[in-house]
C-alpha cells in the first residue's frame, strides 16, 4: 500500500464554499496542492484576484456565489456539475452572519435569530442535500465536509471574553450543534450510495484577536495555543480524501484539546 496516494486528489473536482475566508482559503490551497481542481464559491471576486499569488500554479477557479440565496442552490450546483463534469468533494467553510451577530443573548431579536439560523444552519443542510443528490444521481462516491465547532459540542466558556467586546452568540451554539447532528443524519441517509458526510469541529483559530482573549484562550487548551488556519485545512484534507474512506457521520475535533478535559 502506498499510503501517500490515499491523500492525493488527482482527477477530482472539489467545491469549497466560503473558499476565500480565513480557513477556506487554506482548504482550497491544500486540496489543489494534492491535485484537485478546486472551485471556490464566494462573494468577492476582487478578493480572489488579490489572492492570485497564493494560488499561483494551482488549479483553482472562482464562481461568485451568495450563500444567503438558498433558493439558487439547485441551479447553481447543477451548472457547476455540468461545466466541470463532476463534483467529488464539497466543503462548506462559509460563515455568513448578520451585522448584529455579537449582540448579547438577552438583546437578540427574533428576526436576527431567525435570519442567522436561516443563512447558517438551513443553508448548510440544503447545500448538503443538493450536492449529495447530484452525487447520488451520477453514482459518485463523494465526500462532503461540514464545519461545526467546539461550541456545537460543549457550552462556551465566557471567561475568555472578559475585558473584550467579544462573545459567543447563542445562535452559534444552536447552529453548530444542529450542523453536527444533521451531518449524522445525512451520513445515514446517503451512506448506501457511498457518499460520505463528516463534520470537522475547529477550536479557536488565531486571527489577531485581542491579546487578553488569546492569553485566556491559550490557558484552556492542552496545547497552550490557538489553531493556525493551515492546521484546520490539513484535517479537512484528510476528511475530503480517500485517507478517510471508512469514515462517515464522524465528528472530528481539531481544538488543541479544548474539549478533551
Describe what this molecule looks like in 3D:
By secondary structure, the protein is an alpha/beta fold. It has helices at 4-7, 22-33, 45-50, 52-55, 73-84, 110-137, 170-190, 211-220, 229-240; strands at 13-17, 37-42, 60-64, 89-92, 143-147, 196-202, 251-254. The N and C termini lie far apart (36 Å). 39% of the residues are buried.
Notable characteristics:
alpha/beta, 14% strand, globular, 261 residues
Number of strands: 7
Spatial ordering of strands, largest sheet: 3-2-1-4-5-6-7
Largest sheet: 7 strands, parallel
Overall 3D shape = globular
* Structure classification: alpha/beta
Average predicted confidence as pLDDT: 97
- In helices, the fraction of residues equals 40-55%
Short description:
By secondary structure, the chain is α/β, with parallel strands linked by helices. Helices cover 42% and strands 14% of the residues.
SSE topology sketch:
Blueprint: H1 4-7, E1 13-17, H2 22-33, E2 37-42, H3 45-50, H4 52-55, E3 60-64, H5 73-84, E4 89-92, H6 110-137, E5 143-147, H7 170-190, E6 196-202, H8 211-220, H9 229-240, E7 251-254
Parallel strand pairs: 1-2, 1-4, 2-3, 4-5, 5-6, 6-7
Amino acid at each position: 500500500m502506498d499510503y501517500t496516494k490515499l491523500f492525493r486528489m488527482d482527477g477530482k473536482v472539489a467545491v469549497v464554499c466560503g473558499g476565500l475566508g480565513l480557513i477556506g482559503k487554506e482548504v482550497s490551497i491544500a486540496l489543489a496542492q494534492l491535485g484537485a481542481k478546486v472551485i471556490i464559491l464566494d462573494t468577492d471576486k476582487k478578493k480572489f484576484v488579490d489572492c492570485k499569488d497564493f494560488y499561483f500554479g494551482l488549479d483553482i477557479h472562482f464562481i461568485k456565489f451568495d450563500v444567503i440565496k438558498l433558493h439558487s442552490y439547485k441551479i447553481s450546483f447543477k451548472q457547476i456539475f455540468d461545466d466541470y463534469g463532476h463534483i467529488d468533494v464539497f466543503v462548506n467553510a462559509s460563515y455568513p452572519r448578520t451585522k448584529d451577530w455579537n449582540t448579547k443573548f438577552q438583546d437578540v431579536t427574533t428576526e436576527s435569530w431567525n435570519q442567522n439560523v436561516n443563512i447558517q444552519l438551513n443553508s448548510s443542510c440544503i447545500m448538503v442535500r443538493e450536492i449529495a443528490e447530484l452525487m447520488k444521481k451520477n453514482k459518485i462516491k463523494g465526500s462532503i465536509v461540514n464545519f461545526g465547532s467546539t461550541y456545537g459540542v460543549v457550552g462556551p466558556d465566557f471567561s475568555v471574553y472578559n475585558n473584550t467586546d467579544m462573545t459567543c452568540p447563542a445562535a452559534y451554539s444552536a447552529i453548530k450543534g444542529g450542523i453536527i447532528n444533521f451531518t449524522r443524519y445525512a451520513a445515514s441517509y446517503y451512506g448506501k450510495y457511498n457518499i460520505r458526510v463528516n463534520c470537522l469541529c475547529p477550536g479557536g483559530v488565531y486571527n489577531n484577536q485581542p491579546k487578553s482573549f488569546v492569553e485566556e484562550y491559550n490557558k484552556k487548551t492542552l496545547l497552550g495555543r490557538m489553531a493556525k488556519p493551515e492546521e484546520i485545512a490539513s484535517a479537512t484534507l484528510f476528511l475530503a480524501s480517500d485517507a478517510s474512506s471508512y469514515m462517515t457521520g464522524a465528528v472530528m475535533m481539531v481544538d488543541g484539546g479544548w474539549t478533551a478535559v
